Amino acid sequence: MIPIVFAILAILTLVSAVAAMSFRNLVHCALALAVTFAGLAAIYLQLGAPFIGWAQVLVYIGAVAILIVFAILLTRSAEAPKEPVVSPGWQTGVAVGALVFGVLTLAILSSEVAQRPPSAKPEPTVRAIGNQLMTRYVLPFEAIGLLLTAATIGAVIIAMSEVIKRQANTSKSLDDRPSEEASKS
Amino acid sequence: MIPLYWYLILSALIFAIGLAGALSRRNAILVLVGIELMLNAANLNFIAFWRYGPDSEAMGGLMFVIFSIAVAAAEAAVGLALIIVTYRHYKTVNLDKLDTLKG
Fold first, then answer.
1. Does residue B69 sit within a domain?
2. I need a labelling partner for A37 at 20 to 30 A (CA). Which of A7, A58, A74, B41 fits?
């Protein structure tokens, strides 16, 4: 990748990530987060992983960002609050973040692996990825399908309105009653 | 060609931004956004190491990112459902006011 392209994408990603974490208005935060995801998707495309790049666009920009906007609107936190948006001990949080970054950078710069040149440009076609998913990685693939199903059902049941749950319970107990009486008699 | 450590430092920066945001913001949704940023930083590391690895025909890095994206999507769905239920119960998503368990 040409360095200037990387620099533009990196600056876009970093600025929008900082914006996503620091805007007062939560809807603006969600929009900045979508820009961050788009920048990361462009970096994946430049790195020679087009499938991952488009999956990132579909899953993160298409689903996760929209889900976050829905959550913001459903919890009525769209307008900026009067009180400060950061916790009282926010300096500690920022300091921990800076410390983690410092340690990671030290480790990266002192490592020999980080100086390595890229290998020959790979061409991972979607066909090759599908082949691998269906042969070598078929068990994790099934497991992730199960996990996604469980998470979807779980999310629906957790967020289900209490009234609907109560109605379901009462109708079930009404159904149960005749059978219990029948078993007693 | 760009050396590998540029990607690693970019990823470390995104991770640090996400961590600082998740630790310091008051709104529960923004904490979840910070966690998503940290997961994305990890994904960038996987792709960069795969691209710069000795054998890029082996697609372990790519596969790991596919599974990681799926797990992150599941996590976001369940996390936001939990936040919505919390809001319905306490009428707030401000983490400083959710202190019922505090002794």
1. yes
2. A74
The complex's ipTM works out to 0.92
| Residue-wise pLDDT tens digits, B9-22 | 999 999 999 999 99
* pTM given for the model: 0.86
Q: Residues of A numbered 117-176 whose beta carbons fall under 8 angstroms of chain B's beta carbons: which are they?
A: 117-120, 122, 124, 128-129, 132-133, 137, 140, 144, 147-148, 151-152, 154-156, 158-159, 162
> Largest Cα–Cα distance in chain A?
84
Over residues A64-119, the pLDDT tens digits come to 999 999 999 988 777 777 777 787 888 999 999 999 999 999 999 998 877 777 76
Task: Provide the residue range defining the domain that includes B32.
Answer: 26-90
- Whether residue B99 is contained in a domain is answered as no
Q: How far is C-alpha B66 from the chain's CA centre?
A: 14
How far apart are the C-alpha atoms of B17 and B34, rounded to whole Å?
8
- Flag whether residue B64 sits within 8 Å of chain A, measured between CB atoms: no
What SS3 class is residue B27? Answer: strand
Whether A83 and A53 have beta carbons less than 8 Å apart is answered as: no
Structurally, what CATH architecture does the domain formed by A1-80 represent? Answer: Up-down Bundle (1.20)
* Residue B39 contacts A where some CB pair is shorter than 8 Å: no
CB contact under 8 A, B21 and A137: no
Enter the tokens of residue A121: 């440009």
